[in-house]
Amino acid sequence: MKRIWKKASLPALLVFFLSVAGCTDNEDGRSASSEPDYDLTQVSNKAEVSQEIANQAKRSVLKNEEVIGARGVNTSEQILVAIEVRQMDRFNLKKLEKRITSDLENKFKEKKVTVSTDKKIYLELDELESQLQTEDLSKKKLDQETNRIKKLISDQA
Amino acid sequence: MTSNKQTNQDYQQFAKQRETKRPVFKNCIRAFLIGGLICAFGQLISTFYIHFFHFTEQNVGNPTVATLIFITMLLTGFGAYDKLAQFAGAGSAVPVTGFGNAVIAAAIEHRTEGFVLGVGGNMFKLAGSVILFGVFSAFVIALIKTLLIQWGVI
């Protein structure tokens, strides 16, 4: 038993450190806030569909103290926002999600609002934001991608 | 009859005196630590699946459980899991790995009796009761929840 642990410990440590070392900040020019308390990105307005509404939504969502990070995009019809919730407030995840959704719905009445607390949605939206910032994403492509991510939320498979 | 009872009680007392004290507190600590480590490892696997495959937090549970049971299968086969279980006790039995171990160990043990009567018949010797009581308690809980929703409590 002891021998097994000794043999296994070195590769295990290596895997651990490699998995930790992957964390880097986004360096694609999305202006991040200077506040250390939360994680906000602002996509500049050069994208074909202006992301000003998504930026506004993110800022207003981050005013809740339970929310420590937000990513989101908007198309011409809908807003899709993913939030990261403070650890101890994850006990009320469903309630918080509902409250934030209705808040945003009141604020942006003309658009369909979807809020998710899922890590996967957060990661996907982060990537989409970075694409919006760096590439010329066409309106159609943005719609497609947004719908694809939205489908993930209700994916049961 | 009375004397028989008397000796029985005497014996119980005698046995209690001679019995080595179980280190309950130490066992609890060990179970807590190892069980927590297994769960942390499971969390690592699900985070890995979320980042690199198309799984959301909703449905990452299935592949994570499958992976954990697969790893348990290997550990059981190589004889490492029973050493871990000896050290950790309930810590290695309560997570899903304990269930996997119960199934796989029985399957390995009865392999010599053939596939049908040996492996097939004995595989769920212990796990069968887990399934039975699991399904039954799920049924009861679902019944309670349905009633509570009907009455509008939750």
Provide structural commentary.
The complex is a heterodimer of chains A (157) and B (154). Chain A has 157 residues and is α/β, with parallel strands linked by helices. Chain A is 48% helix and 17% strand. A five-stranded mixed beta sheet of chain A has the order 1-2-3-4-5, with helices on both faces. By secondary structure, chain B is mostly helical. Chain B has two domains: 2-123, no CATH class; 126-154. Chain B is built from eight helices and no strands. Classes of the chains: A alpha/beta (157), B mainly alpha (154). Chains A and B meet through helix 4 of A and helix 2 of B.
Write the layout of secondary structure elements.
The complex is a heterodimer of chains A (157) and B (154).
Chain A: H1 2-21, E1 31-32, E2 39-42, H2 52-61, E3 67-74, E4 78-85, H3 93-107, E5 112-116, H4 119-134, H5 139-153
Chain B: H1 2-18, H2 24-52, H3 61-77, H4 81-88, H5 90-93, H6 96-109, H7 115-122, H8 127-151
Helix pairs in contact in B: 2-3, 3-6, 6-7
Strand order of the largest sheet of chain A: 1-2-3-4-5
The CATH topology of chain A corresponds to: GMP Synthetase, Chain A, domain 3
Largest interface: A-B, 13 and 14 residues
The biggest beta sheet of chain B is recorded as: none
| Helix and strand run of chain B | HHHHHHHH
| Strand segment count of chain B | 0
* Termini gap of chain A: 39 Å
Strand content of chain A: 15-25%
Number of domains of chain B: 2
Low confidence ranges of chain B: none
* Total of helices of chain A: 5
Shape estimate of chain A: globular
Secondary structural class of chain A? alpha/beta
Radius of gyration of chain B: 22 Å
How many distinct folded domains of chain A? 1
Helical content of chain B stands at over 70%
The chain-level mean pLDDT of chain A equals 81
What would CATH call the architecture of chain A? Answer: 2-Layer Sandwich
Tell me, what's the shape of chain B? extended
